[in-house]
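Hi R.,

Here's the chain you asked about this morning:
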Amino acid sequence: MHKQYDALALFSGGLDSILACKVVQDQGLKVLGLHFMSPFFGKPHKIEHWSRIYGVDILPVDVSTAYVEMFLTPPNGYGQHLNPCLDCKILMLSHARAMLDEYGAKFLISGEVVGQRPMSQRRDALNMIRKRAGVRDLLLRPLCAKKLEPTPMEESGLVDRERLLDIGGRGRKRQLALARETYRFKEIPTPAGGCLLTEAESVGRYYFLLRNKPCPSLSDFRLACTGRQLWSGGHWLSMGRNQADNAALAALAEPGDLTFDLRNYPSPLSLARPLPGVEWDTEVIRSAAALAASYSPKAVRAGTPVDMLVSHRGRVDTIAVLPDRAPALNWAEPDTDGLREWKIERGQSL
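And here is the predicted structure, written out as tokens:
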């Protein structure tokens, strides 16, 4: 039997989600924060810390499989980059709604503020999200509640509407004042939500994958999040930048992947995942091996060919290559050139 709560809250770790929990807790109600995770967002390693400093019980909730399925063709389209913010919120609220009975909770909480974000927090968008997630009579937005119609929780007296807030717009002065003066938080999170799909420097990783593989898997997206990403046409290479990346790449390797690792020098682990219709012939393998070797400073200083171990389907071959940062196939990091046109072609541009 789980511990029982009055409300379940969407808890991103951002300031608004924290404040939404505290405003409801101030009324003597028990709140459980749900920290959703996918390949693109989620910081489960911070949950214990957040719980301790903000005084909120928090549960990690992995929605990766459902999120990737939605992300490939979001009904309400992408935002400025590859962020399906409307459908993301609908997915999380729908999942949270299904968890209410498990924790004995009567309603849901979200830290949204009307007018704060141009895609998902317009008044019409807030209404649409609530309707399509099936939470019309279950969702309370404590930070902007007084700018919205009263909810059943307020009308029944379960929640005192007078103690809720009327924050609106893009400014954050009132939230910061609450954090500093009312709750005296020792740590105040930045406004950023932490979703990689909203960050211009990260979007190329997923755009190139989507452009070259019609239906990427969850494993594909996890790989695209890991290490340095390099492409040559439809050839995809992921390269570790540190020991943590190397370990993550090793764990992500699938039977059809190729891995590259220098024999006698410290080096990043590199993983190639062949995509449908794209052949990894001898020339491509040698090019990837030369590029991978070029990221080993000791191998470069040797000034001679080095032995690269290439593993594929249980077989390990050794090839001698000269480290080369600019091999013939012109490997490059992904960018977002053509993203707008790609979204228009898919009918996903806003």
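One quick note: The chain has a mean pLDDT of 94.

Cheers,
M.
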